[in-house]
């Protein structure tokens, strides 16, 4: 909590060296490299009745909100968005928990503000969740850059408090960007040439609930996989995309239907195109009924 005690405005830098960013649609929240943008600045509101709870307000005068909307079908993470509730409730309240030189932001219901990595559509998204894999534990850690110091005792606006989720839009505003920086300079977005990797290139799409794929003729996203084992490939997709329990499928050249891959991939590291099916989808249930899983 000491990170925010005297802070009037902050920016939050994720484990991926990107900043918590309020999108221009005044609703979405994601991660961006540009920490100098007004969209990366968050106004801190302390709550008088609590000594360990804060609210964060975007440059559009909307609160960082832990919504109940899933980011993707079958994925546990819920969307973090910008809202202006008619009555403030617990969805806009965050508890800072210090972890060394960094901080975790916990919702009133035990989830943590999480900066997602991996491949699209997971990359750069922000959710609230509890990380279960050791490889994603750092995704809930944030560096706090203090941009403005609060002089005197801060008081939040007199908006009544309620636990009802009743949101309405508000007129955006653009606060001043005079900043006092007390942390390291923001990183640049320079990208070096990655080392050459052995293995096969696998292009993939994520299927809709019924198995349909938008723009399947387009090349899609890709990863490099070194091996032939389908189970290892499934784990690789989980690590890279954050989608747990996906079913790796191919499309039959005879009837165009999806079928789960079994045992081994084709030899000689040939390039492949696959479709990822979410375990809670309608087509996954059809696979179970047909005895394909």
Question: Summed up, what is this model?
Answer:
Pfam families: DUF569 (PF04601), Ubiq_DUF_assoc (PF22932). With 293 residues, the chain is mostly beta strands. It has 2 domains: 7-149, Trefoil (Acidic Fibroblast Growth Factor, subunit A), CATH 2.80.10.50; 200-289, Roll (Ubiquitin-like (UB roll)).
How would you explain this protein's 3D organization?
The longest helix has 12 residues, at 230-241. The chain folds into 2 domains: 7-149, Trefoil (Acidic Fibroblast Growth Factor, subunit A), CATH 2.80.10; 200-289, Ubiquitin-like (UB roll) (Roll), CATH 3.10.20. The protein is elongated. The strands form 5 sheets. The chain has a 5-stranded mixed β-sheet. The protein has a 4-stranded antiparallel β-sheet with strand order 5-4-1-12, with no helix packed on it. Strands 6-7-11-10 form a 4-stranded antiparallel β-sheet, with no helix packed on it. The chain is mainly β. The model is unreliable at 159-195 (pLDDT under 50). The protein is built from 2 helices and 17 strands. It has helices spanning 230-241, 282-289; strands at 7-14, 19-22, 29-32, 42-46, 54-57, 63-70, 78-83, 94-99, 102-107, 112-115, 126-129, 142-149, 200-206, 221-225, 247-251, 258-260, 272-277.
The total count of helices amounts to 2
What order do the SSEs take from the amino end to the carboxyl end, as H and E?
EEEEEEEEEEEEEEHEEEH
Q: Biggest sheet: strands, sense, closure?
A: 5 strands, mixed
CATH topology of the largest domain: Trefoil (Acidic Fibroblast Growth Factor, subunit A)
The mean pLDDT is 80
The helix content is under 10%
What structural class do the secondary elements suggest?
mainly beta
Calculate Rg over CA atoms. Answer: 22 Å
InterPro entries: Actin-crosslinking (IPR008999), DUF569 (IPR007679), Ubiq_DUF569-assoc (IPR054726)
Pfam families: DUF569 (PF04601), Ubiq_DUF_assoc (PF22932)
């Amino acid at each position: 909590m000491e990170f925010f005690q005297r802070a009037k405005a902050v920016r939050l830098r994720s484990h991926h060296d990107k900043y918590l960013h309020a999108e221009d649609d005044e609703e979405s929240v994601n991660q961006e490299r540009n920490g100098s943008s007004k969209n990366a600045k968050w106004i801190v509101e302390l709550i008088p009745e609590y000594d360990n709870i804060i609210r964060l307000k975007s440059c559009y005068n909307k609160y960082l909100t832990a919504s109940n909307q899933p980011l993707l079908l079958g994925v546990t993470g819920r969307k973090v968005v910008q809202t202006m509730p008619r009555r403030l409730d617990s969805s806009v309240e965050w508890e800072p928990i210090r972890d060394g030189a960094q901080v975790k932001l916990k919702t009133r219901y035990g989830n943590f503000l999480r900066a997602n990595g991996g491949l699209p559509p997971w990359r750069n998204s922000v959710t609230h969740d509890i990380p279960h894999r050791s490889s994603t534990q750092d995704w809930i850690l944030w560096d706090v850059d203090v941009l403005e110091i609060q002089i005197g005792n801060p008081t939040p606006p007199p908006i009544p408090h309620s636990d009802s989720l009743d949101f309405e839009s508000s007129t955006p505003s653009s606060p001043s960007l005079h900043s006092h920086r007390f942390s390291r300079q923001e990183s640049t977005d320079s990208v070096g040439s990655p080392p050459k990797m052995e293995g096969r290139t696998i292009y993939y799409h994520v299927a809709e609930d019924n198995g349909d794929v938008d723009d399947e003729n387009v090349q899609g996203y890709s990863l490099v996989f070194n091996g032939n084992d389908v189970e290892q490939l499934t784990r690789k997709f989980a690590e890279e995309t954050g989608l747990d329990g996906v079913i790796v499928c191919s499309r039959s050249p005879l009837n165009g239907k999806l079928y789960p891959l079994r045992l081994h991939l084709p030899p000689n590291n040939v390039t492949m195109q696959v479709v990822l099916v979410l375990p809670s989808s309608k087509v996954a249930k059809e696979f179970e009924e047909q005895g394909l899983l």
